[in-house]
Amino acid sequence: GLSQYSSDPRTEWDLSAYSTRDQVLEAVRNLRYKGGNTFTGLALTHVLEQNLKPDAGARLEAEKLVILLTDGKSQDDANLAAQTLKNLGIEIFAIGVKNADEAELKQVASEPLELTVYNVLDFPLLSSLVGRLTRVLCTRIKEKSNKENADLPVNMGPQLSPTDLKISAVTSKSMHLTWSPPPRPPKKYRVVYYPSKGGIAKEVVLDGATSSLRLSNLTSHTEYLVSVFPVYDTFVGDGLRGVTSTLPLSSPRSLRISELTHNSIRLSWKAAQGATQYLVLCSAAPDGAED
């Protein structure tokens, strides 16, 4: 599977899209480079939410590896997003080119860093990594696969995923989430939320017996993407997703002017809900400076 990213991650093809080496290589040859910003944290969250799920071809019993290729320093918190993946047993390899930040690569990558972090001066030099990286990847998969894992049939997906996400009690700063738990209760839930137009992804981890959450300290008049993932001992079930917008901040109403004198006026208005202060600007009409 492959995703490209800048300020908005884009899935090029899912894990289930191709079944032969030649098909994958042909897809790579036809790939168009996506320029732009470097929101690595948002990209890693996209991979978890969009690419590593059953309906994108991710098998619950298969080992999960993510290879990050970047030529710059992230403009958001890549470490938090990477830690989320690593906490779920997903192994990250970080490859830097040109202006990549090596310290950031080491933060993002899984241990041991001598096997998971690579850095080259320019894109043509990536070819020198292929042989070693291939051997390391195959060895890591074999090592992880030999460990004791839960033997779960693929068709258990519906038994492992929550349903019926509902978003209610939306205000300018908060919203309330509820969902129906899966037949097989998870150990934990991960709730990830972030502005749809780009921004730092935040997450809350809940006990598996919980099926509701109030999100607070949100930005007003903003569309949010929300995902709820069930976390089991050795894998993550398919997530629920929703989208909703917070309300705009309320405004003061019914401005009135009274008690005019030669050098003063009195203003009155109906309060804006939730306001703690007001800023009042006045200027001499029509083009006077603000006082």
From TrEMBL:
<keyword id="KW-0964">Secreted</keyword>
<keyword id="KW-0272">Extracellular matrix</keyword>
<dbReference type="InterPro" id="IPR050525">
    <property type="entry name" value="ECM_Assembly_Org"/>
</dbReference>
<dbReference type="InterPro" id="IPR036465">
    <property type="entry name" value="vWFA_dom_sf"/>
</dbReference>
<dbReference type="InterPro" id="IPR013783">
    <property type="entry name" value="Ig-like_fold"/>
</dbReference>
<dbReference type="Pfam" id="PF00041">
    <property type="entry name" value="fn3"/>
</dbReference>
<dbReference type="Pfam" id="PF00092">
    <property type="entry name" value="VWA"/>
</dbReference>
<feature type="domain" description="VWFA">
    <location>
        <begin position="1"/>
        <end position="133"/>
    </location>
</feature>
<feature type="domain" description="Fibronectin type-III">
    <location>
        <begin position="161"/>
        <end position="250"/>
    </location>
</feature>
<dbReference type="InterPro" id="IPR036116">
    <property type="entry name" value="FN3_sf"/>
</dbReference>
<dbReference type="InterPro" id="IPR003961">
    <property type="entry name" value="FN3_dom"/>
</dbReference>
<protein>
    <submittedName>
        <fullName>COKA1 protein</fullName>
    </submittedName>
</protein>
<dbReference type="InterPro" id="IPR002035">
    <property type="entry name" value="VWF_A"/>
</dbReference>
